[in-house]
Amino acid sequence: MQDSERLSGQDQLIERFGAYFESIGFQPIAGRIIGLLSVSDREELSFDEIINRLKISKGSASVVLRRLVSECRVAVVESGRRHYYKLNQQNLFELLDEFERMCDSVRYLLNTTIDLKTDKESSNAKYFNQIINTIDRYKTNMATMRQAVQTI
Q1: What percent of the chain has pLDDT over 90?
Q2: Looking at beta carbons, which pairs linking 3-9 to residues 24 or more positions away fall under 8 Å?
């Protein structure tokens, strides 16, 4: 793959990170920064490198980077008077716990929705039950996989 193709692919992926983060309630810039730090050939980037590559304002970048650092998603590395930013490589289980909490929230909302419906056999209720069953299977499988990883 040529450099221009690789950089174009990186840019597309960075935008997908932004869209994903926006879809789960975060600022797209946060996702784009995470995407850039994930796909960049260098694992530590300066503030100027981030704003120049993403073409974002210094103010936006500063606010979002502070938030990402406070949420422990990004780490700051100091080198002399310069600050560099890199992904904070969280424990795999912390990321999975976060995802499971989201699943639990969805499961609760769907269960409550079904409980409040008169027709518990409606098309929507059946669909919601399928989602709940899928979440339950996921959690069961994830518990089994956690045990397997912890014994390695």
Answers
A1: 67
A2: none
